[in-house]
């Protein structure tokens, strides 16, 4: 209830009630409303600035979720790109070399897509640049997969027309996976166990018990069977087509020079002869007299998962066994 105000009337010498005119009352009312509106505006502005509405909170959660999904997508795209590059590398430098086919030109593998308006439908969005870049990566990967698929179709035709060659090319492990013991030392620079220096290791070391059978990895003719400095007792097989394999540190042989053997034939047994620090089979593959990584030739007796495990183990920068 509003307080009644009085004023002293000097003429009547009495206190009389203050009577406000309608205009004054209207002005006071407008002043109160204006003040209330200003404070309301300030409060609302502060609320919108520092406090989120339920809808804004939901939108922020969705944005955070989308950002996380985008990061996951980018990570997967990078992984797929790495795998694709590895397939291309092996296709050009291993498989096409084997079948004497020309490597696919880089400009064909990495060719872009024509048309400046290809991604026009993705313009004028808040995240247009992001969507366009991601779509371009997916399109490029799709193109590379298509080119690689066509390349494998070509190689499949070459395989069908070169059956004898396929039987001769080294394509299995020299040691049964179930007989392996310990780690595998891979191709490349490794710490030498005797000289204690980093030295080129031109093959793979398969640790296994003495007496474990060693298998020929492809059809061919035995061209050497005897002792060699550093290698100990070793066998060398000429597979033709520029391929030669060497099996070292054997305990004993099962074949002689001049014998024609088939892939999978037992040619000897694991030993610890020569410059060896433990029972194992040192295995080398040569193409046109140049050593190449044998890991690329285990495509006949390993599943994809087994091959990836073998690749990971052989890639470790560990110490060799010879």
Q: How is this structure best described in words?
A:
Residues 56-90 form a coiled coil. This is M23 family peptidase. One of its GO terms (molecular function) is metalloendopeptidase activity. By secondary structure, this protein is an alpha+beta fold. The protein has 3 domains: 6-50; 60-161; 177-314, Glucose Permease (Domain IIA) (Distorted Sandwich), CATH 2.70.70. It is 40% helix and 22% strand. The protein is built from 6 helices and 14 strands. Strands 3, 6, 7, 8, 9, 10, 11, 12, 13 and 14 form a 10-stranded antiparallel β-sheet that branches. It has a two-stranded antiparallel sheet with strand order 1-2. A hairpin with a 2-residue loop joins strand 9 and strand 10. Helix 2 runs parallel beside helix 4 (128-161). The longest helix has 45 residues, at 54-98.
Task: Give the topology, please.
Blueprint lengths: L5 E4 L4 E4 L4 H29 L3 H45 L7 H4 L18 H34 L1 H6 L15 E2 L2 E4 L6 E4 L2 E4 L5 E3 L4 E9 L3 E9 L2 E11 L6 E2 L4 E5 L9 E8 L2 E3 L11 H11 L8
Antiparallel strand pairs: 1-2, 3-6, 4-5, 6-13, 7-12, 8-9, 8-11, 9-10, 10-12, 10-13, 13-14
Helix pairs in contact: 2-4
Total DSSP E strands: 14
Find the structural class using helix and strand composition: alpha+beta
Q: What top-tier CATH class of the largest domain fits best? A: Mainly Beta
Question: Rg to the nearest angstrom?
Answer: 40 Å
**What's the total helix number?**
6
CATH architecture of the largest domain: Distorted Sandwich
Tell me, rounded to a whole number, the average pLDDT: 80
List the helices and strands in order: EEHHHHHEEEEEEEEEEEEH
Main pleated sheet: 10 strands, antiparallel
**The CATH homologous superfamily of the largest domain:** Glucose Permease (Domain IIA)
Query: Which fold name fills CATH's third level, the topology of the largest domain?
Result: Glucose Permease (Domain IIA)
How much of the sequence lies in strands comes to 15-25%
Number of domains: 3
Poorly predicted tracts of residues = none
Shape: elongated
Relative helix content? 40-55%
Distance between the termini: 105 Å
GO molecular function: metalloendopeptidase activity
Protein name: M23 family peptidase
InterPro entries: Cell_wall_metabolism_enzyme (IPR050570), Dup_hybrid_motif (IPR011055), M23ase_b-sheet_dom (IPR016047)
Keywords: Coiled coil, Membrane, Transmembrane, Transmembrane helix
């Amino acid at each position: 209830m509003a307080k009644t105000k009085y004023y002293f009337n000097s003429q009547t010498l009495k206190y009389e009630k203050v009577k406000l005119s309608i205009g004054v009352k209207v002005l006071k009312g407008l002043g109160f409303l204006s003040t209330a509106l200003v404070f309301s505006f300030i409060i609302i502005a502060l609320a919108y600035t520092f406090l989120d509405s339920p809808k804004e909170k939901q939108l922020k959660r969705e944005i955070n979720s989308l950002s996380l999904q985008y990061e996951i997508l980018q990570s997967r795209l990078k992984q797929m790109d790495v795998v694709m590059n590895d397939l291309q590398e092996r296709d050009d430098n291993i498989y096409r070399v084997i079948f004497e086919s020309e490597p696919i030109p880089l400009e064909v593998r990495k060719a872009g897509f024509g048309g400046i308006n290809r991604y026009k439908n993705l313009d004028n969005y808040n995240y247009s640049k992001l969507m366009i870049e991601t779509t371009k990566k997916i399109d490029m990967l799709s193109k590379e997969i298509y080119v690689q698929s066509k390349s494998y179709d070509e190689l499949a035709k070459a395989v069908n027309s070169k059956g004898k060659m396929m039987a001769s090319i080294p394509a299995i492990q020299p040691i049964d996976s179930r007989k392996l013991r310990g780690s595998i030392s891979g191709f490349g620079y490794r710490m030498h166990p005797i000289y204690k220096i980093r030295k080129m290791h031109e093959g793979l070391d398969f640790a296994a018990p003495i007496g474990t059978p060693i298998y020929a990895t492809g059809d061919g003719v035995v061209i050497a069977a005897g002792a060699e400095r550093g290698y100990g007792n070793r066998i060398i097989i000429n597979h033709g087509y520029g391929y030669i394999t060497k099996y070292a540190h054997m305990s004993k042989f099962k074949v002689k020079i001049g014998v024609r053997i088939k892939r999978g034939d037992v040619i000897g047994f694991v030993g610890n002869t020569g410059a060896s620090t433990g029972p194992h089979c040192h295995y080398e593959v040569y193409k046109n007299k140049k050593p190449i990584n044998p890991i690329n030739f285990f495509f006949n007796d390993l599943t994809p998962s087994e091959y990836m495990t073998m690749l990971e183990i052989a890639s470790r920068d560990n110490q060799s066994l010879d």
